[in-house]
Amino acid sequence: MLMQTHEARLDALRRELKHRELDGFVIPISDEHMSEYVGAYAQRLAWLTGFGGSAGSAVVLGNAAAIFVDGRYTVQVRDQVDEKLFEYRSVPKDTIGGWIVENAAEGARIGYDAWLHTKRWVETVQKQLDKKGAKLVPVDGNPIDAVWQDRPAPSDAPALIHAQEVAGRSSAEKRAEIAEWLKAEGHDAAVISALDSIAWVLNIRGQDVEHTPVALSYLVAHADGTAELFIAPEKVSPELTQHLGNAVTIRERSGFPDALEGYSGKSVSVDPNYGAAAIAQLLEKGGAKVSFDRDPTILPKAVKNPVEQQGHRDAQARDGAAVARFLRWIELNAPSGEIDELTAAAKLKEFREAHGDLRDLSFDTISAAGPHAALPHYKVDEDSNIPIPPSSIYLVDSGGQYQDGTTDITRTVWVGPGEPTQEMRDRYTRVLKGHITIDSAIFPSGTAGSQLDSFARQYLWQAGVDYAHGTGHGVGSFLSVHEGPQRIAKAAGGQAGTDQELLAGMILSNEPGYYKQGHFGIRIENLVLVEPRKIEGAEGDYFGFENLTFVPIDRRLVDKSMLSPAEIAWWDSYHAKVYALLSPQLEGDDLAWLEGQCAPL
Questions:
Q1: Per-residue pLDDT tens for 307-348?
Q2: How many CA atoms lie less than 13 Å away from 339 in the CB half-sphere?
Q3: Which domains does the chain have, with CATH numbers?
């Protein structure tokens, strides 16, 4: 009989741990590639606890258990996880190691799956456990898998060819670049385990992770430009084999652990953030010299080539027309009070699908009505779904995966009847001013995203308010909607990517926001491309942003008196471009609506 309750699942796991002579076990949301989004087979934390967020961990001991989430999920974890089973713990204030030290017995043996954590994580937690004489123990097979009777199998969908017409560069050229790096660093090989990196190097895509078009696999790139792809045989078609060519050897994914032990005497590079601890452990066991370096594809993947840049522009133009049609639909239908969050999200997907080239959404649509809009990472489901209240703010953050680009856009709109409050208009206009300031920024070569972050926040700070998320993240090309290494975010706490220099060709989001808990939330998000700026008399190289997203911004929430003449000129120029790009794709009432939205402010 299948275990239906989370209490039964927790009991079963505890019995399994006892059988293995373990005093505890750590359960992250992770897969063997350290992916942000993971396949259904790897959703172990959700199965055990009921938590549906995309970041978090739990620790289970014989007589206590805790779930660790950050500030994005404070409300969600309380809605979804039973407090009688798991204590709620807040990251970064609380740490897994610290909690184990407080709650485990002296000398406890705490299991962990070395395929789901990095070596750095293992070292950090073990250092904390040393205070208690406790020890982290790598498990042979995940104990949750042993008790999860109806666990889905990993996807067997075929890997797909990503044609050079949309990729812009050949796989051979990319592998040659990696080979040059390996030779320069004195390495024989690099293990590439991040799924989007493998997809980028080989010009392949897949269907194995929801919203991210990647194929479950591992890649070892060699200093002679050859590579070995470890992938399940059912994913490989004759066409894919031909596409990969003779320089890429295809091997069974299941043979990857044994292959790692065969690098005796070789220098092998592993990324410390994406390489599972098991990879380094197996290489070292086989006698390899392991070097921890950033995955050599990360930066070249982030800097889009001209073909990828144009693909993004084309995808954004089609996506923009779909979002514009949706915003008119919301304006017409939501004031009735009969449209709920799920219906709205489904309707937006329908508008995107009407073009016929949508491959997937780029993430679960954040369709957030009223107080839900104050939760930056709200995820609507059957339990949380509410009607969009008349006379309120509605926030929709969504995106599409197209073969030529990945989109991500947020619009916040007023749902009538009536007028927004002055507080809503004030906060919205401050967010807009920050958005315009980022869009208009000019900065010298060597500038990191953290140096631009306060440009977006300054107007909110003047009113004594702020927002708790970053201002911008990198975006892939028909790949991950969250792509490193570049970010626009506060540098506090050494957040990954905030010290990365912004380079021409990088794509980022521009998404300042404001959230009044229990009341409303505001975010305005476009994607921007870093481009060189010619400045007469400039001393050195300077950059700015090309805006890529063209969809009307809701004028009903703007307090025009708070905008400078330059900001009003930005608004009018932006909406003139929106009209020029979208009007050929719209007709009838949709076109008439667009014309009204794009009139000068």
A1: 999 999 999 999 999 999 999 999 999 999 999 999 999 999
A2: 25
A3: 6-147 (3.40.350.10), 160-297 (3.40.350.10), 303-597 (3.90.230.10)
